[in-house]
Specification:
Layout (H helix, E strand, L loop, with lengths): L1 H41 L2 E4 L3 E4 L2 E4 L8 E6 L5 E8 L2 E12 L2 E11 L2 E12 L4 E11 L2 E6 L1
Parallel strand pairs: 1-4
Antiparallel strand pairs: 2-3, 4-5, 5-6, 6-7, 7-8, 8-9, 9-10
Length: 153
């Protein structure tokens, strides 16, 4: 009788441990899912420039009342990027890049840095070196609050 009781207690204890471990695993999976959702919410959006509209000086996603924050891209027929623009609260903010596209792909043509809708930082222009198929810097200006500042190369 004592052996049976001991065996029943051992089986009950094992089943309880397995159930508890499963519950802990499910809780960890749920927590991981929540963490992934929060990461996704914090990531900037990247959409086609064609899905944006300008209203009263601010940029919005079509059918939205919230000013757009994220990256807008413009693509050509082959899917190559011709332009990449960053916005924050509907205003240019961050890097704006324009690309020249040829048979071999995208080559950087222009890069400028914006802060709150005003040029602020480096503004660079490039040309394509035909022999190397790479962009070569031909002009660099620094801006501070929309006004040229510092060296001009």
């Amino acid at each position: 009788m004592k052996k049976r009781l001991l065996l029943i207690l051992i089986i009950f204890n094992l089943s309880f441990s397995i159930t508890n471990a499963k519950n802990e695993l499910y809780e960890k999976i749920d927590l991981f899912g929540e963490v992934l959702e929060n990461i996704k919410k914090g990531m900037p959006k990247e959409i086609s420039k064609k899905r944006l509209v300008e209203r009263r000086g601010l940029v919005y996603e079509v059918n939205s009342t919230i000013p757009f924050t994220g990256t807008a891209t413009d693509s050509l027929i082959r899917g190559w990027i011709s332009e990449r623009i960053n916005y924050k609260d509907g205003i240019l903010h961050g890097v704006w890049e324009e690309y020249h596209n040829d048979i071999k792909g995208e080559v950087l043509e222009h890069r400028s840095t914006w802060r709150n809708g005003v040029l602020h930082g480096v503004n660079e222009n490039y040309i394509l070196n035909i022999s190397t198929d790479k962009a070569v810097l031909v002009e660099r200006k620094n801006y501070k609050n929309g006004v040229p500042d510092g060296r001009y190369e």
